């Protein structure tokens, strides 16, 4: 398979406001563009869920950096699969911040992402989220 897709959750170690999140996205997008990585980052009340997809070696490298990053901890991989298709080909890192509606691009998803059932639901809906992002934001 051409690509690999990893989904993980983590806990922010400090409060993430709009400014912190934009800084993080700014850097992440630049790195991801260089490495051909795409995905989406969801944030709600200090919990992150991120989907990252791209070539396996670049993802290994990103995972190492993520695990070292003191801005979050408890990095828990909930899915890691080879794939031939990217769900978020246009997104060096899409973002949905449920704490700040102006950053939230994903309407209609129940937002208690600390609940494992909701995370399951979210993962099932990833193709739908990808379509939504592609249709609504260029
Ligand atoms: C929740 C979260 C998501 C992140 N997502 C990415 C990402 O998609 N791509 C990326 O290059 N860095 C991402 N980072 C930042 C990396 O952890 C790391 O700081 C950055 O890649 C620079 O690496 P370095 O500090 O080892 O130079 C993320 C950090 C956090 C806390």
From TrEMBL:
<dbReference type="InterPro" id="IPR036046">
    <property type="entry name" value="Acylphosphatase-like_dom_sf"/>
</dbReference>
<dbReference type="Pfam" id="PF04940">
    <property type="entry name" value="BLUF"/>
</dbReference>
<dbReference type="GO" id="GO:0071949">
    <property type="term" value="F:FAD binding"/>
</dbReference>
<dbReference type="GO" id="GO:0009882">
    <property type="term" value="F:blue light photoreceptor activity"/>
</dbReference>
<protein>
    <submittedName>
        <fullName>Sensors of blue-light using FAD</fullName>
    </submittedName>
</protein>
<dbReference type="InterPro" id="IPR007024">
    <property type="entry name" value="BLUF_domain"/>
</dbReference>
<feature type="domain" description="BLUF">
    <location>
        <begin position="3"/>
        <end position="94"/>
    </location>
</feature>
């Amino acid at each position: 398979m051409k690509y690999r897709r990893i989904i993980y959750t983590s806990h922010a170690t400090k409060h993430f406001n709009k400014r912190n999140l934009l800084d993080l996205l700014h850097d992440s997008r630049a790195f991801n563009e260089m490495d051909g990585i795409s995905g989406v980052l969801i944030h709600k009340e200090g919990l992150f869920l991120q989907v990252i997809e791209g070539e396996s070696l670049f993802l290994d490298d990103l995972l190492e950096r993520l695990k070292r990053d003191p801005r979050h901890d408890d990095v828990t991989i909930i899915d890691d699969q080879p794939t031939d298709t990217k769900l978020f080909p246009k997104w060096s890192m899409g973002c949905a911040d449920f704490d700040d509606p102006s950053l939230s691009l994903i309407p209609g998803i129940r937002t208690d992402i600390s609940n494992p059932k909701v995370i399951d639901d979210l993962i099932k809906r990833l193709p739908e989220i990808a379509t939504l992002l592609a249709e609504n934001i260029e």
